Amino acid sequence: MSTEESVSAPASGALLLCRAEPDSVDAVAPLLGERMTLLPAGGEWSVLVPAGGPWRHGGEPVDRVLTGWAAALAVGAPWPALALWWDADRAGYTLASGFRRPVGYVWLADGTPVGEDEAMRTFANRLGLDPVLDVQSLDRLTRPDPEADARTRLRGLLAVLTRAGVALPAGLDPGEPADRLGAAARALPGARRTEAAGRRPTAGESRLAPWMPWVGGPGARALALAQMAAGLPLTVWGLRRRSGGWTTAGALLVAHGALGTAYGLSKRS
What we know:
alpha+beta; 7-stranded antiparallel β-sheet; globular
């Protein structure tokens, strides 16, 4: 391992916020292919804390992995997913919601903004934030500030999100390494581990149950087709860009959609 890798890898970390209760998130989290710690993060929010295998051991940048995961969750469920990520050089966020193109923003490690101002306004609009007060607060995060590094910028973003109901559990601080975040998350009351891919929960375990492939209802079949439609171009796009995160997200969507379609057809026959 090079000196640069040994320095930057421990500093990498991420949090994945979902605008849904833990039971709902738990039902679709296996789509991501990695077990994570799941906790409530406010009245209608949950947070997934990944161990970070894909970027710590696979060489894939943390931002690409998290963008792919957020997109997979948002297409596979009727709520938005917000990825917060950071490494030794940069930090940022990606918001995915439905089939719309994900929106995000990036800061360099010293807090220098390198994103587009319009992304912040789109972000606020999709989350239903206040178009005046909240947008003004977000706009300040896009302006130069020599006293605000990337970690401070992420904290400022979370401060705005508190008005949308986000309340991260104690110890889950942006900028911390993934292993430290994971240890803190597992020690918190109410923490649970998501299941590995392939598990089939019972229909009563989640409010998303009518949409899950093992139910075989009209909602499940519609979602399965939508996942396949979104997953195919996502996989192709990821392969062209040699992005393991996007490719994995697309492949998972295709596989999950194909499973749902096949199960739906078997239920009808």
